[in-house]
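By convention, the token line describes the chain's fold. To illustrate:
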Amino acid sequence: MELQELQTIWAEYDRKLDRNLHLNMQLLRQIKLDKAGSKLSSLFYYKITEMIILAAAVIYLGSFVSDNWGKPQFSLSAIAICALFVVCFVYDVKQLSLIRQVQRGFNAAIAPLQKKIEQLKLSIVTCVKCALILLPLYPLLLLLAGKMVFNVDFLEPARRTYFLSNAAVAIILIPLAVWLIAKLSAKNINNSVAKTLLMGSGWYQANAAYRFLGEIEKFEQEA
């Protein structure tokens, strides 16, 4: 076999190898994108459900404030809890926007998509931190639940001692809430406490999507 023929065979072999490598890369990219998309889709609908619940709670609390405006122990408590729910609702809107941006950008470069998912994860962590504020505020929830469910006022003389004892416990819980919030930091995000606090928040779906995109980026760099 002449040298020219051998070079032609090798050139054709290289072209086939490059084509197969390109097809394999496209297939891998699509598989990983499908997995990331699945995680983000489940997170999207989870956040929609969460927003519906928050919106219903805000509307109900708004009506409750209107009906009990002359009773500050109820109206102010409801306003405080309602404000916290509104903050969480706003963060959910932001998270939905980020999810859609990532889903629409699947044909673009991986790095910008990872950056948006990092923003999504940060927003989810912030929401969990807001929820932890409810820990020392639970006497307000107790006060509201007493009125809403049983139509009783825990600040009445006959029940005041019970409420004040719960308020004292809430004060003791402030350091715990601060400690738990501190645990939700970038350097502690993988410890057991943080993992427990993030359960059910959507953080794991977002992190899984980020990991799938990272696998694509790693393979592209190695290729």
